[in-house]
Write a structure and sequence with these properties.
The chain is of the alpha/beta class and about 425 residues long. It folds into two domains: about 10-210 and about 330-415, Zn peptidases (Aminopeptidase), CATH 3.40.630.10; about 210-330, 2-Layer Sandwich (Alpha-Beta Plaits), CATH 3.30.70.360. It is built from eleven helices and 15 strands. A hairpin with a 5-residue loop joins β1 (about 55-60) and β2 (about 65-70). The two termini are about 40 Å apart. The relative contact order is 0.18. The structure holds (2S)-amino(hydroxy)ethanoic acid (HGY) and manganese (II) ion (2 copies). One manganese (II) ion (MN) binds near residues 95, 126 and 362.
């Protein structure tokens, strides 16, 4: 690790590893939003924020925020952060690296009081939660957490709104989560792709974050005896789902190769009922994750998926009891001024960078609707993420934190004009 960086890379690394310990032991690394384990992680994080001299609170949207006031209230707030929740059997760096790097930046600023207020934020439920929604806290902060979304429920029937309140939010005062004082938001994140590592580039400057649509389709057939029911008399919801999933994959692959920007789609959730080997599935629930740099392309794709899934259901003698667009975000551009600032900061510290789009969703996509926002990617081994093998080198995290710190110092000198 370079020993000339103005951040404590060992302290940063130790914190990332310490947070990683707070995982479901049977399924490392898992700290699902709203879970007891997630709250253990939050309690640990709140202590670390307080030890760094920050004033700690949870806002109405359930975001954990550590704040250091600035000397000039007219300069607004520089916000740094990411998320501490994980996917099931996820990694130790997705989100967490950004929260701890933000903390390290504040700790490494020492006691000189910046003119801007500085905040370290752990956004609530960035990953798709058990309630079917992702980026819950950053939606609340940016005004995109609709009242209808608070009614989404988990498998136990708990409403998202009640869950947000349960972890310290205050959905009756959700408007208080809204912010208009953010001069700049910077999020460090692992790339979750292979571009930086394969190009031996130190850091990525994110140009835009793809739009993400999540579509739920429930196929309704008839549960029947798997041994005695003739094939011609079956209403197999599983087959309708499987044919639709195959169609989505083929269509998305064709679009991905068509030169119309980043386009991907998959079925990340597939559940059968009654889910027994010797019963023809009477019900199948599929949730599709569709991502595009070009939002119009995603819209056409979703319309086609609606039509084609109805055709395939009918051809399989199965009904579609529900087609729901759980979420649909438009692509978010990162602020060019902040991107340039990150580029200058990296260059000043001797790190190489390249611009690249993000195929992963991030809280910055929502914060960018209310404030100039930019993202800094650090390489992760083999591009692997959302899996226990996820790995980032200590040097890379230290490099990212040092560049983030340099950007904060430069912001201090020349805050970009608010867009
Ligand atoms: O799904 C995503 O793109 C992000 O990792 N939540
Ligand atoms: Mn993720
Ligand atoms: Mn993430």
């Amino acid at each position: 690790m370079r020993n000339d960086l103005p951040v404590d890379g060992d302290r940063l690394w130790a914190d990332v590893m310490a947070l990683a310990e707070l995982t479901d032991p049977a399924q490392p690394y898992t700290r699902r939003s709203f879970s007891p384990r997630f709250l253990d992680g939050r309690a640990w994080l709140a202590r670390r924020l307080a030890e760094a001299g920050l004033k700690v609170r949870i806002d109405a949207g359930g975001n954990l925020i550590g704040r250091r006031e600035g000397s000039d209230p007219t300069r607004g707030t520089i916000m740094l952060g990411s998320h501490s929740d994980t996917v099931p059997s996820g990694g130790r760096f997705d989100g967490i690296a950004g929260v701890i790097a933000a903390l390290e930046v504040v700790r490494s600023l020492g006691n000189d009081k910046p003119r801007h207020a500085i905040e370290v934020v752990d956004f609530l439920a960035e990953e798709p939660s058990e309630y079917g929604l992702s980026c819950v806290g950053s939606r609340a902060m940016s005004g995109y957490l609709d009242p209808g979304m608070l009614e989404y429920t988990n498998a136990d029937g708990e409403k998202l709104g009640d869950a947000i309140d349960r972890v310290g939010g205050a959905t009756r005062d959700l408007a208080q989560a809204r912010r208009s004082d953010i001069a700049a938001f910077l999020e460090l994140h692992i790339e979750q792709g292979i571009v930086l590592e394969s190009g031996n580039i130190d850091l990525g400057l994110v140009t835009a974050i793809v739009g993400i649509a999540r579509l739920e389709i429930i196929f309704k057939g008839a549960a029947d005896h798997a041994g005695t029911t003739p094939m011609t008399l079956r209403h197999d919801a599983g087959v309708a789902a499987a044919r639709t999933i195959a169609l989505v994959s083929d269509s998305a692959s064709a679009l991905a190769a068509s030169g119309q920007g980043h386009f991907v789609a998959t079925a990340g959730v597939l559940t059968f009922e009654p889910n027994a080997a010797n019963v023809v599935p009477g019900r199948a629930r599929v949730v599709f994750d569709i991502r595009a740099e070009d939002h119009a392309l995603a819209t056409v794709f979703i319309d086609e998926l609606d039509r084609e899934s109805a055709r395939l259901a009918a051809a399989t003698h199965v009904g579609r009891s529900r087609v729901a667009l759980l979420s649909n975000t438009t692509p978010a551009a990162c602020d060019p001024g902040l991107r340039a600032l990150l580029a200058q900061s990296a260059e000043a510290l001797g790190f190489s960078t390249i611009p690249l789009a993000s195929g992963a969703g991030h809280d910055a996509a929502f914060v960018s609707r209310i404030a100039p926002s930019a993202m800094l990617f650090v390489p992760c081994r083999g591009g692997k993420s959302h899996a226990p093998e996820e790995w980032a080198e200590p040097d890379a995290l230290a490099a990212g934190a040092a560049v983030l710190r340099e950007a904060v110092l430069r912001l201090e000198m020349t805050a970009p004009e608010r867009g």
